[in-house]
Design goal:
With 155 residues, the chain is α+β, with helices and mostly antiparallel strands. It has a single domain, classed as Hotdog Thioesterase (Thiol Ester Dehydrase, Chain A, Roll). 37% of the residues lie in helices and 35% in strands. It has four helices and six strands. The protein has helices spanning 3-18, 21-25, 55-77, 109-122; strands spanning 28-32, 36-41, 81-92, 100-105, 124-135, 140-152. Strands 1-2-4-5-6-3 form a six-stranded antiparallel sheet. A hairpin with a 4-residue loop joins strand 5 and strand 6. The N and C termini lie far apart (33 Å). 33% of the residues are buried. The mean pLDDT is 92.
Length: 155
């Protein structure tokens, strides 16, 4: 198995272990790296009665993408910490009528550097992550900003 495939398999195993809802949503990881996480999920089990993506599924996919991004940073830093969502701001701009695509994009590098420095020094840190959820065709749907907190675990 190639390194990239191994990394994706590890990320998916971690996701299923830590967030079982990801399996129920049908989430698959398309890309997982320190600068970007991209997920997809099928439309049918995540639709609502209006024939559009259920808002809760959009938010869940977004939260999971952001969590995977920040969790990867914590793993890379070698710090024993739990990553949790602290705050979420969402704007639903357009309905999504097909398979879901959620993209968490790393904030500017200085934000990640500050996050890692603070985590190492204080054992806890927070960072804001921009996330987009749309259809697989790239269409606009939901824009979110998640504030994630890493909380060091006692040894």
């Amino acid at each position: 198995m190639e390194n990239a495939e191994r990394t994706l398999a590890h990320a998916l195993d971690t996701l299923h272990d830590d967030i079982p809802l990801a399996r129920a949503l049908g989430i698959e990881i398309l890309e997982h790296g320190p600068g970007r996480v991209e997920l997809t999920a099928p439309f049918e089990p995540n639709r609502n009665g209006h024939g559009t993506l259920f808002g809760g599924s959009a938010v869940s996919a977004a939260l999971i993408a952001g969590w995977l991004l920040v969790h990867g940073w914590v793993e890379e830093a070698g710090v024993a910490a739990d990553v949790v969502i602290h705050q979420l701001d969402a704007r639903f701009d357009a309905p999504i009528t097909g398979d879901v695509r959620a993209v968490a994009q790393a904030p500017p590098s200085r934000a990640r550097e500050r996050f890692e420095r603070t985590l190492g020094r204080r054992g806890r840190a927070r960072v804001d992550v921009p996330i987009r959820v749309g259809g697989r065709d790239g269409g606009k749907g939901t824009e979110l900003v998640g504030r994630y907190v890493a909380l060091g675990r006692p040894d």
